[in-house]
Amino acid sequence: MSKSFDVVVIGGGPGGYIAAIRAAQLGFNTACIDEWKNEKGGPAPGGTCTNVGCIPSKALLQSSEHFEHAGHAFADHGIGLKDLSIDIGKMLGRKNAVVKQNNDGILYLFKKNKVSFFHGRGSFVKAAEGAASTGSGQGYEIKVAGAAEETVIAKHVIVATGSNPRALPGAPFDEELILSNDGALRIPAVPKKLGLIGAGVIGLEMGSVWRRLGAEVVVLEALPTFLGAVDEQIAKEAQKAFNKQGLKVELGVKISEVKTGKKGVTVAYANAKGEAQTLEVDKLIVSIGRVANTIGLNPEAVGLKLDERGAVVVDDDCKTNLPNVWAIGDVVRGPMLAHKAEEEGVAVAERIAGQHGHVNFNTIPWVIYTSPEIAWVGQTEQQLKAAGRAYKAGTFPFLANGRARALGDTTGMVKFLADAKTDEILGVHIVGPMASELISEAVVAMEFKASAEDIARICHAHPSLSEATKEAALAIDKRTLNF
Ligand code: FAD
Ligand code: NAI
Q: Ligand 2 centre from 456 Cα, in Å?
């Protein structure tokens, strides 16, 4: 006998597991199907984010930052260390333990919220009688191929099957020499020379990890501008800092061939001047973006519409072309971010319940967890210029912030952009220490349509990095107090 559910979520990444929990909170009989396996073949819910994305990358960024501080920054504090060493096996073991804590945490949350979990691959079989035409019938039949095969019937389906790394043509991932994010997070020993293709978010984060641990890192980027989506002033400041650290980024390249051999990987490319170049590295990480994943979902069985790039087609409310079938996260349009997937998951569960779930795409924050961190929300200065919008800009450097001086990390700035007439905050951009935490204040402010003056008039704790945020808001009216 098939089990029937009000809501079945296919995919247990941050989009899927959060959607399932919210649906259960709203009183729906809910199941979540996820196929990710841990080393022992057991369930490892949490998707890309938990297993080979956000969480393990931040664990390694933390370990490698400690190592770099111990080697360079501690001496300034009068702390002497002899024979500094790094045990990569232990570092990777810690990272794996952090991942497992998160996998186990999600399984616990499923139990707590009475979400039925199925470990295996979920595929559409057919629309169950009457459902697809009326939108109100009993739903869809879904096969779960796991240790045992089962069939479930769902009234509502939420597709949250995520994304996969994009490979360079002719250079498939072998995870030994040519690495995706998966292999990049488990390199067993520090490579002498590491190449990365793509100076995007993964390129900079993973490049930073292995550079801090001692690898010579070269990043090859196709675009002529560094971090084109980031506010230009902020991107320039970040680029300066990365150059100083020795992270080599070559812009405007065209990759022609990638060959693996006994000694490593050879990349043939043309530089920005069109000159033929060769790069020899021990390992190559390819981080040139990700593609929506519907492998094994069998969308054809029910006529679920995909676009030309394989993403599930959805409207603003995450509705697909099929009644009662929704899709969220990396498998649909929009930024590929865990918190965007989560917000869509909550909104869809609430819409199924007849509520007005809402995701504000204008206030989704971005963070790049390098050192300095880069974080932003809203529009960049170049976007405002291109749109012909009259704006005011205010910046405040961490160099003039007492807490940053005490921390010994004064790189970067906070930048505010506000409407020239109304003073409404249009964008906030940060490069510097703890930018990932500081950006939340800006997100809240923009969600409430605050003006720069609102932030400037709010009391911020002293000494704190957040005072730089207040000062940047003051800078909009050219009245900083500490600079
Ligand atoms: P996923 O997390 O990809 O989850 C999809 C799940 O569905 C997987 O478990 C998969 O096994 C399962 N699945 C797929 N098909 C089926 C099927 N047919 N049946 C059953 N299960 C199926 N984002 C951030 O916001 N912050 C970060 O710091 C960050 N760091 C990242 C670092 C790296 C190295 C990478 C690669 C990504 C990072 N991201 C980060 C992006 C983030 O991981 C994704 O945006 C997020 O995981 C998308 O969530 P999702 O639920 O849509 O999909
Ligand atoms: P990305 O889109 O951030 O960067 C890819 C880069 O590769 C771009 O700069 C692009 O111009 C370049 N590129 C594309 N094709 C190329 C080619 N043939 N040769 C050279 N360069 C080429 O993608 P990335 O870094 O792979 O990450 C995927 C996604 O994962 C991100 O877009 C982001 O959504 C998510 N992510 C988020 C993180 C965070 O929030 N901190 C961390 C890591 C990933």
A: 35
DSSP codes of every residue in 201-235:
HHHHHHHHHHHHTT-EEEEE-SSSSTTTTS-HHHH
What lies within 8 Å, CB to CB, of 79 at 6+ separation is none
Nearest CA residue ID for atom 35, ligand 1: 53
Q: Give the distance, in angstroms, between the CA of residue 216 and the centroid of all CA atoms in the same chain.
A: 25
Atom of ligand 1 nearest to the CA of 339: 25
pTM of the model: 0.97
> Which CATH number applies to 364-475?
3.30.390.30
Task: Give the CATH H-level superfamily of domain 3-52+95-164+291-359.
Answer: FAD/NAD(P)-binding domain (3.50.50.60)
pLDDT in the model for residue 132: 44
Regions of the chain short of the pLDDT cut 50: 130-135
Bridge partners of 5? 154
Ligand 2 pocket mutation pick from 50, 271, 288 by most atoms within 8 angstroms of CB: 288
Residue-level pLDDT at 129: 67
329 lines ligand 1 (CB under 6 A): yes
- The rounded distance, in Å, linking the Cα atoms of 95 and 197 is 24
* Known catalytic residue at 462: yes
Q: Is 139 in the pocket of ligand 1 (CB under 6 A)?
A: no
